[in-house]
Design goal:
UDP-N-acetylmuramoyl-L-alanyl-D-glutamate--L-lysine ligase, ATP binding, alpha/beta, UDP-N-acetylmuramoyl-L-alanyl-D-glutamate-L-lysine ligase activity, 11-stranded mixed sheet, cell cycle, 16 helices, binds adenosine-5'-triphosphate, Mur_ligase_cen, about 500 residues
């Protein structure tokens, strides 16, 4: 049973210079539970007060069995003693790791960060390593969290990277279930909010960065966004970097500050004019990229890369030329964890990722793609790819954009549509407290509507139905932004929604 004593908590906090005051004397009395949500508190619990906290939650926690609290401020009438710390998020992460017995020591971890491709790369990696390690690969991703082999060990995720206490809980379960590795996505918010403070990874991958998540409640500036993402490299033993993205020099020197260059692997597309003074270790070239799959040739260029033993031709079961880079990242990280080329080949050919370039064929109408693209970088990649693949077919996109966050996405989506789509249906996507029609207008402001026929249909299902049923053979229709999400976030509520994939799946039956 997981436990931690008061003395252990205090030593840990002192070691990290986080302790301000303790109203508890250092003792070997253990806490049986730790929690940050008062509703989940049980007997003899150490309760963390963090975030948008109300003192009523502390009363609730005490009534449910909390015997001490930890917080950045003192609550005079708490009725239980407090441990006051400089930074509650950092303290909670450190205490959670210790409470659960440092599960990361039993679970070699591959972590992905990047503006785009984290989920896809994580799924590729899990599919490969599942071959090598008899499916015993745990996963922490935006879509699902996997801690074991039973159906109940797979649950839907709430965040891309969970709160620290939840992350260490899942890692403990995975280790106890005999899982051999963990593949996880690490968002920039996870660093901003210290959800992964103190966690080290065996391999950390920096996929790419482009402006996103900048604004209210997220990152104040691009520099802050980049800084947060780069923390993954500072906390990784081996770093894998993509030469095809921007800011490589900055990213490389961040990695080099804590990692020997022989443990830094750079991969890139052959013939690409990369922004790099560093040699590319693993090069790939596209042999085939079609509307249904890719094929790549991977070649090691340096001595350390040759030791990975991954040279060869690989088929990738998910379309989109940008998935070639995601696949190479997964091949490198899997090889570092012991995967053989046959296992890499199987994993890359057989991975599917819910809501990422899912293909739905019709008999007499167009081909429909359900994809999670919801900013400039991703929508541009998808539309650009499809336009190149079907120069004579019409490319139609159905999309909206979120309210109250990612405001700059509206311009980005409009730009991407303007560059490569022939037709756009603007609709609703998690408008929160905003008016979806106003959001659509802001997207449309960046579209030359004399060139790209643009229509606003508020009901998302109606917009999808119209676009799909009007498409002709050879046309390509992209339903972008929501994938399998089964809700619309409206005025603080998750309003049930069928999901793009479910709607399209039903629609194409009769077409
Ligand atoms: C702004 C922000 O980061 N908020 C996160 C934060 O919220 P918070 O700590 O302020 O929590 P809160 O819900 O306001 O409640 C305050 C505290 O009171 C407690 N409480 C509350 C009610 C009660 O009855 N009793 C009680 O004890 C809560 O458990 C909590 O500890 O901690 C919560 C988990 O503990 C997160 O769910 C929440 O993420 C919000 C919802 C969120 O969606 N964040 C997004 C921006 C995010 O992190 N996204 C990234 C992906 C983006 C990317 O790709 O970069 C992600 O990793 O998912
Ligand atoms: N390497 C890439 N470069 C550009 N676009 C990509 C890349 N990989 C995936 N995409 C696009 O981004 C979308 C989201 O991909 P994925 O879920 O793998 O990324 P993510 O980093 O997990 O995204 P998010 O943070 O939005 O959850 C895909 O549906 C696809 O449109």
């Amino acid at each position: 049973m997981a436990q931690i004593t008061v003395a252990e908590v205090l030593v840990l906090l002192k070691e990290h210079n986080l302790l301000l005051e303790s109203q508890l004397s250092s003792s070997s009395h253990p806490f049986d539970q730790i929690a940050y949500n008062s509703k989940l508190v049980t007997d003899n619990c150490l309760f963390f007060c963090k975030g948008n906290f109300k003192s009523a939650y502390l009363d609730d926690a005490r009534q449910n069995g909390a015997t001490a609290y930890m917080s950045e401020k003192t609550y005079q009438n708490a009725g239980i003693p407090g441990i006051i710390v400089k930074n509650i998020q950092k303290a909670m992460s450190l205490v959670s790791a210790a409470f659960f017995g440092f599960p990361q020591d039993q679970l070699p971890t591959i972590a992905y960060t990047g503006t785009k491709g984290k989920t896809t790369s994580a799924y590729f990696t899990k599919a490969i390593l599942d071959q090598t390690y008899q499916r015993k690969v745990a996963l922490s991703s935006t879509i699902n969290t996997v801690v074991g082999l039973k159906p109940e060990d797979v649950v839907k995720s709430n965040l891309t990277t969970p709160e620290s206490l939840d992350l260490f809980t899942m890692m403990r379960k995975a280790a106890d279930n005999g899982m051999s590795h963990l593949v996880m996505e690490v968002s920039s918010q996870a660093y901003k909010k210290n959800r992964v403070y103190g966690l080290h990874y065996d391999v950390g991958v920096f996929l790419n960065i482009s402006p996103d998540h900048i604004g209210r409640n997220e990152h104040p500036t691009f520099a802050d966004y980049l800084h947060c993402k780069e923390q993954l490299l500072v906390n990784s033993d081996v770093c894998v970097l993509n030469a095809d993205g921007t800011h490589l020099t900055d990213i490389f020197y961040t990695a080099k500050a804590t990692t020997q260059p022989e443990n830094i692997f750079i991969y890139g597309r052959a013939g690409q004019n990369q922004e790099t003074e560093f040699p590319v270790d693993v090069e790939y070239r596209s042999l085939k990229d079609s509307l249904t799959e890719n094929q790549i040739q991977v070649t090691a260029r340096t001595a350390k890369a040759k030791q990975l033993n991954i040279d060869g031709v690989y088929r990738i079961g998910i379309p989109g030329d940008y998935n070639e880079g995601n696949a190479v990242a997964a091949a490198i990280t899997s090889a570092l964890m012991g995967a053989k080329p046959t296992e890499i080949a199987y994993g890359l050919a057989n991975t599917t990722v819910p809501g990422r370039m899912e293909i739905y064929q019709t008999h007499d109408h167009g081909t429909i793609y359900v994809d999670y693209a919801h900013n400039y970088g991703s929508l541009h990649s998808v539309l650009d790819f499809l336009k190149k693949q079907a120069p004579n077919g019409k490319v139609t996109v159905i999309t909206g954009s979120t309210g109250d966050k990612g405001i700059d996405r509206r311009e980005g989506l409009g730009k991407a549509i303007n560059e490569a789509a022939d037709q756009a249906y603007l609709t609703t996507d998690d408008p929160a407290t905003e008016d979806p029609q106003q959001i659509a207008k802001e997207i449309a402001a960046h579209i030359d509507t004399s060139k790209v026929a643009t229509t606003y249909i508020p009901d998302r299902k109606q917009a999808i139905t119209k676009a799909v049923s009007e498409s002709q053979k050879g046309d390509l229709v992209v339903v972008a932004g929501k994938g399998h999400d089964q809700y619309q976030k409206i005025n603080g509520k998750n309003v049930p929604y069928e999901g793009d994939a479910a709607i399209v799946k039903n629609l194409v039956k009769g077409l």
